[in-house]
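Backbone geometry:

***
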Amino acid sequence: MKTVAMWTVILAVIGTAIGFSVKPIRDYIAERNRPRWKTQSMVVGEIIQSVNSTGKVEPVRRVSVGASVSGPISELKVDFNDPVKEGQLMAKIDQRLYIASVQRDQASLRTRQAEVARAAAMFEQAKNEERRGMELKTVKSDFISEAELDQIKFMRMTRDAELQIAKMNVEQAQAQLDNSQANLNFTEIRSPCDGIVIDRKIDIGQTLAAQFQTPEMFTVAPAMDKKMHIYASVDEADIGLIARAQKQNQTVRFTVDAYPDELFDQGRILEVRLSSKEEQNVITYPVIVETPNSDMKLLPGMTASLSFQIERKQNVQKIPNAALRFYPPRERVHPDDQKILDGNEEQKDAVADSAKMMSADEKAQANRSQISRHVWVSDGAFLRAKAIKIGVSDNRYTELLSGDVSENDLLVVGEELKKK
C-alpha cells in the first residue's frame, strides 16, 4: 500500500508539473512560429513625380560646309575643335585652272567690247551715208536712184543690228567672266556662320569631285558654347505626362557618363515631336530638351540619362511604395479583412481575362479607381487592412491623399525570413 501511495504521489507531482508547463511551451511555440514582418512608417517630406528616359546630346544645329567646284586641296586653315567666325577662310582649292579661266574670259570680254566699238563706228558711217543720200535726193531727185537709196537705208539697218549683236556678245562675255570669277571665289571655302569645327573630312592634297554631288568638307556647330539639345525617346504611355510638364515649364534633370557625379538641372522641354517611331511593337515619340552649355562639358554624341519632372510637392505625407506592393498571405489576414483579398483576387482575374473586352469608359474608370488602395498593419497574430487614397509617386514613395494612417503606424512591406 505504501508503494502504491508513493507512486500515486509521484504521478500527481509529475502531472501537476506537466500541467503548469504546457501553457509556456504552447506560448513559446506560438511565439516562435509567429511571422516577423518588415515594416516602414509613413513620412512627411518632398515628393517628385518624374519620367525617366535616355537621350543623345547634339548641337542645336549642324552646318555642313561643302565645295561647289572640283580640284585638289591646296591649303587647310582650320582643324578639329577650332572656333571659326562667319566668312573666315577654312580651306583653299587649287586656283590655277580657275584663274586661267578668269583671264581667258577677261580677254574675251575685251574682244567683245572692241567689236562693239567697231560696230558702233560702222553704224555711224552707215547713218552718215544715209543722211547724205537723203540730202542729195532732196537737192535733185534724179541724182540718186531709189535702188541706191534703199541700199543705203538697209545698210544702216544692218549696221544697227550688228551693233546690237556686238553689245549682246559683250553681255554674254561678261556673264561668262562672272561665272568664272564665281568659280574662282568658290575655291576659297569660308565658314557660313560662327561656331566650332566638330568634324573635318578633308586633308591637303585630297582631290574633290563636285560634278555629281557636293562633297562635305567640314561640319560647324554654331552656339555650342551657349546651349545644346538632347534628343530623347519617350514611351507613348508617358507622353501625356511629358506634355503636361512642358506646359508647366518643369525642369529636366540629367546626368552624363563623362561626369557621373554631377547633376545637370537646367534642362527645359523644347519640343514634343509628332513623328512617332515603332520598335518591337513599342511606340515612342522624340522629345527635345534644351540645356545651357557655357562650360562646354556637354559634347556631341554623349548619352544622357534624363529625369523629366512632372510634378513636385512639398511637405506631403508619403507612403513607402513597398507597402503598396505588399500582398499578404491569406492565412495571416484577419478574417474580417479577408474579403479585401477576395475583391483583389477577383479584380486581378477580371483584368487578366477581360482587359481586351473592356470599353473605353470601363478602362478609364478602372484607371481612376487605382487611386484607392490598401496597406497592412500588424495586429497581434493577424494583419489588418487600412484603406487609403494615393496621389503622385516617385521611385520610393507615393503621396497619401487620405486614409486612416498616422506617422506612428508601422506599415508592413514584407515578411522576414526565419533563421534556420
